[in-house]
Specification:
alpha/beta; FAD/NAD(P)-binding domain; 7 helices; 17 strands; 24% helix; binds flavin-adenine dinucleotide
């Protein structure tokens, strides 16, 4: 099945796009986190969102959840790791799943954690963003896993069942304990190094290096250049016009990923505009 639209991201921009697509009876897939957005959940009090005076971030996420449940809108709890153009539509990879869609709405927010020096050039040459897709390549090998959130720990568990040795770099508090082959690293990795065109080691903050065959980066977001090659950006944000249209046909963007100000109501407004633009684009295909 080819969807009308795929929304990537479950913050206010994604929620607003999903509500608008549902109201217009579109066939869409929504990929992100079932807990919506960490950036929403972490807000102590929100004073500037119309209709929800002085809610906590958690209360706002709860309202989003209720509203989506009442409309029977489901979230696929996965990270999209790559997108490819496929003739007149796009194909998205998220974990071990593959989705086809005529249009895409990026509502991915802005990344808190940047990529490491060397990472970009080594994607597919030892650097992976998807444990279930690429884990089998590292059976009985030595790998590193850099992980920004506890919710990805099941992927670390999965990888530790395949690899002989895992250097684990958790970028969050209180990581779980894993099997004996997982060494939790207290120093951060600061650089990825290549030998003969493939990843060979990571340099740590203290200057030491660890030799690895592969590294898995499990982050709340994936760099835009990696996700969809050819997508135009401006100062790290997706370039859009007032209709939230990007440089690629059928691709729209909304929320923090399009630029400042980083605000809930701007994200929600843009999600609505992006959904309307996607609907117009779909009509033009017929
Ligand atoms: C502590 C804090 C307090 C704040 N307080 C306020 C406030 O009071 N008022 C205000 O207006 N703004 C506030 N903000 C800013 C606000 O949080 C953001 O502007 C808003 O969340 C942006 O919404 P968004 O939908 O664009 O992105 P986000 O809320 O960042 O959501 C993006 C979502 O996309 C998902 N995602 C990213 N990449 C992928 C991928 N490849 N595949 C699948 N999913 C993906 C992420 O996991 C995330 O769930 C605050 C921010 C913080 C951190």
């Amino acid at each position: 099945m080819i969807y009308d639209t795929a929304i990537i991201g479950t913050g206010p921009a994604g929620v607003s796009a999903a509500l608008t697509l549902r109201a217009n009876d579109k066939k869409f897939i929504w990929i992100g986190s079932k807990t919506f957005s960490d950036k929403v959940g972490k807000a102590e009090r929100i004073a500037n969102y119309p209709g929800l005076p002085m809610v906590t971030g958690q209360e706002m996420n709860d309202v989003f959840r209720r509203q989506c449940e009442e409309l029977d809108i489901a979230i696929e709890d996965r990270m999209v790791t790559s997108i490819m153009k496929f003739g007149d539509h796009y194909a998205l990879t998220a974990g071990s799943e593959f989705y086809e869609t005529y249009t895409i709405i990026f509502a991915t927010g802005v990344a808190n954690v940047g990529t490491l020096p060397g990472e970009g050039e080594l994607v597919g040459k030892g650097v992976s963003y998807c444990a279930t897709c690429d884990g089998f390549l590292y059976k009985n090998k030595t790998i590193a896993v850099i992980c920004t959130a506890k919710r990805f720990e099941h992927e670390v568990e999965f990888l530790s069942g395949l690899a002989a040795k895992v250097y684990y770099f958790p970028l969050y508090k209180d990581p779980s304990r894993f099997g004996e082959n997982v060494e939790i690293m207290s120093e951060r990795a600061v650089k990825m190094n290549a030998e003969n065109g493939r990843l060979a080691s990571l340099t740590l903050k203290n200057g030491e290096a660890v030799s690895v065959n592969g590294v898995f980066c499990l982050r709340e977001s994936v760099s835009l250049a990696t996700l969809l090659p050819g997508l135009a950006t401006e100062q790290g944000h997706i370039a859009v016009d007032r209709a939230m249209v990007t440089n690629l046909p059928g691709v729209f963007a909304a929320g923090d990923c399009t630029g400042r100000p980083y605000q809930y109501v701007k994200a929600a407004g843009e999600g609505n505009v992006a959904a309307h633009s996607a609907i117009e684009y779909l009509a033009s295909l017929r």
